[in-house]
Amino acid sequence: SSAQKATFSFGENEIKYPCCVLIPHDSEIEGETATIHYQGDQYHNDGVLSLGYIPMCGYAKEDKGSIPINTLVGLLRLKMKANAEGIRLASITVTSEGGKRLSGEFSLYMPTATITPTSNSSTSITYHLPDGYTLSTEQENLFTIVVPATNLGTCNVVFTTVKGATMKMRWNANTIKPNSIHEQKEITFEQGA
Question: Among 16, 19, 71, 117, which residue carries the largest CB count within 10 Å?
Answer without folding.
Answer: 117
